[in-house]
Specification:
alpha+beta; Zincin-like; 6 strands; hydrolase; Uncharacterised_SprT; SprT_Zn_ribbon
Length: 165
């Protein structure tokens, strides 16, 4: 799977180098991204992270648009510095002028939500006030963090019940 994507990253860098007449350090490429984002550019680490699920489901468009989108962030950062806006005119110049692609900020890939467990919490101010917590938030409570009802300011208490969503 990563061979085509890595080749596309390299092609994007070669196009940028030909345009700007300078060399750019190649980034580390990772396939350790989950959730709704298709890709993320970590500017200071010179790292690109891609979502393998969205890559598999949207292969051609992902290679063409998403990879160029993330590479353009790294190129813009290295050319114009850290003070530019993420999808500002410098980034748009690279997307349009070098890659010949529309400077779309977001993808339109269909996201399949994973089923998750919700931990149900309640407060004292009324029946039916149920607060479904994610596993991450539930674990923070187990480590001592407290969450409060906005209405009565009482500490939310775990009911012992869970729900699958």
């Amino acid at each position: 799977m990563p061979e085509q994507l890595n080749a596309r990253v390299e092609a994007c860098y070669q196009q940028a180098e030909a345009f700007f007449q300078r060399r750019f350090p190649r980034p580390e490429v990772s396939f350790r991204l989950r959730g709704q984002k298709a890709g993320v550019a970590h500017l200071d680490e010179n790292l690109l992270r891609f979502n393998p699920q969205l890559y598999r489901e949207n292969h051609e468009h992902f290679l063409q648009q998403t990879v160029a989108h993330e590479v353009a962030h790294l190129i813009a950062h290295q050319m114009f510095g850290p003070r530019i806006r993420p999808h500002g005119e410098e980034w748009q110049l690279i997307m349009r002028g070098i890659y010949g692609l529309p400077p779309d900020r977001c993808h339109t890939y269909e996201i399949k939500r994973r089923r998750s467990t919700r931990y149900l919490y309640r407060c004292h101010c009324g029946e039916g006030n149920e607060f479904p917590f994610s596993a991450q938030r539930h674990n923070l409570v187990a480590q001592g963090r407290r969450y409060y009802c906005r209405r009565c300011r009482a500490t939310l208490i775990f009911t012992g019940e869970t729900r699958r969503e």
